[in-house]
Amino acid sequence: MSKKVLVISTSLRNGSNSETLADSFASGALAAGHDVEKISLKDKNISFCKGCLACQKTQRCVIKDDASYITDRIGSSDVVVFATPIYYYEMSGQMKTVLDRANPLFARDYSFRDVYMLSTAAEGSEHAAQRAVNGLKGWIACFGKARLAGTVFAGGVNDAGDITGHTALQKAFDMGKNV
Questions:
Q1: Distance (Å, whole) CA 104 – CA 113
Q2: 101: enclosing H helix or E strand
Q3: pLDDT in the model for residue 92
Q4: Residue 16: predicted pLDDT
Q5: Is the torsion defined by CA of 60, 61, 64, 69 positive or negative?
Q6: What are the structural domains, with CATH classification, of the chain?
Q7: Spatial distance between the Cα atoms of 3 and 8, rounded to a whole number of angstroms
Q8: For the chain, which ranges sit under pLDDT 70?
């Protein structure tokens, strides 16, 4: 059965390692016949959440920017994939902002069940991504029908393009193929 897969690349760097990892996951999902949409935050205007909680009554954010479109796409997808560089052992600030701005989903019916995290870091050890994974788990915990379905980490990649030939690319492809 074909699923709607949304891949969100949160890096703002052109040719980033985490975006390459996202593309590999998307390629696998496409190869399996899924409907894949990729959103890159590079060209998006996304403001910080104001914490007004109006969205809990209206199911819409009062801020008019690109986050509303992304939130709608998250809510209508079966599978959501976040790809992030790891900065100081945590997800990128722009990923955290997207998670915060997705607050209107809490009051809505949503379609996503499986959430994946793809991450890259200059640090080679798998523990480098653990805080970011835990942060995403915290967001997922607010959505009782969703689960963290898998993670892929590519360590030891710093400069754009360092991920070329990394074993994580095949892992991401295979994970995408098996959603």
A1: 17
A2: helix 93-101
A3: 98
A4: 97
A5: negative
A6: 4-177 (3.40.50.360)
A7: 16
A8: none
